[in-house]
Write a structure and sequence with these properties.
With 500 residues, the protein is mostly helical. It contains 22 helices and two strands.
Amino acid sequence: MTEVKVQQTKVESDNEPVAVFFGKDDPENPQDGWSSWKKWRVLFVALFITFTSTFNSAGEGAVSAGFRKEHPNISSELFITSNFAYQLMLGIGPLLLSPISETFGRRNMLIALTALITVLFLPQALAPNFASILATRFFQGAAGSVEGPVIAGVVADLFAKKNRGRAMATFVCAVYFGNGLGPTLGNWIAFKTSWHWCYWFQMIMSGTSCLLVIFFLPETRGEVLLQARAIKSEKETGRPHYIPGGVHAHNWVEAFKKSSTRPLVYLFTEPIVAGCACWIGFAWGVVFLYIGAVAHVFTETYGFNQGTSSTVLICGCIGSLIGWVQDQTIQERLYQRSRREGNGVATPEARLYSSTAGGILFSVGAFGFAWTARPWIHWIAPCIFVTMSNVGSYIIYLATYQYLAEVYGTFSSSAQAAQSLLRGILGAVFPFFGVIMYDNLTFKWASTLVGFVSAGFAIVPFVMIKYGAQLRARSKIAVQLAAQEPTPLGDVPQEQTIAV
């Protein structure tokens, strides 16, 4: 009897699930096992994808004049709908695509979508009518939605919270460089050659990004790598394996049902996500409002041509560089001080400190642009204020991304997808009334209106800093993730595995 009992116990032990996790300095662990060179190589590929996507998003307006010259029946307002379709899908796409990447990984998704984006430039460059451009921009926007949440997820995969700041700041710089250089280079290409070459140039860039992903971007999602390891171990040993803290779908339908609804749940039930989404949504809408309005103001006020008026948008690149330097010299020090005061764990609200000034700069820049764009005032003056406004919006953008990543951790892509929805919608809608608003309200009062609304939103970071801890305490998701923080996937204690 005793011998049988021992045998039964042994069988039961053999059937118990085995924990799978990354050991210390595990070479397959993107955060702790990969070398700095490998991390930054992968990050460069991710940043190039971001740059090409935002370049595509912001550069569409450069095609308008040349295309409408060949198709006189197409008005400028109608042509804007092509970018509306792209921006709208840029916001909706992450609801479906980025959460699935949390379950099935980043690499395969990025390969498929960058390839699709590249192919869709062909019918645009050869478009015989506007309907061709409109349809392809719609689907390209869905594919281009990898730009924000999924790439931000890659950054979170590669770098732990304590040293993620520089990588995330550089990621946002790539976003702003795409927004600045897209319309600038696009307008010069259209001005010197033809509108067709705007699309050919972007097709070359997108094709390059696809090749870079294929050859230089391995899978970065830790849970996906561990799941692959677990499946391999199950086949070899016959014993079930699991990932501590991980939840995995076993088929695409299950993953789609669960993960595609998560961003909407966050948006409507998480005050932190809703507040950040409204704030960055408005700021992002103004960025795209300025892409058309600023060039229009400089054309009408200073007589700039298509190329020189769009060159003013380089102020966005300059503003992002200033914002990046500020982040590394001021914001990052404030965050590290919070870590030291918290015995190695910083409060998530520490990511918002500089955004208190960023919201004010964003508003002051709008007011300054409103009252200095005059024929008798040198054009450099409004350029300075446009730059200031971009410094502010850069800081806001970076702060919301980092804050959501801190609060929602492993499911940050879903939180980012939620705020991307409002960013995409407002980025699509604002250009519709941009030039019309500036003509009807006059240049000074249109920008003054932007300044007043921006001033109202400037209170958001102050509220988050003061009440953020209380909001997180009421969030089931944030509380659950905070409880897991002491033992993340890469640091599961060895004793726990032995016990299992």
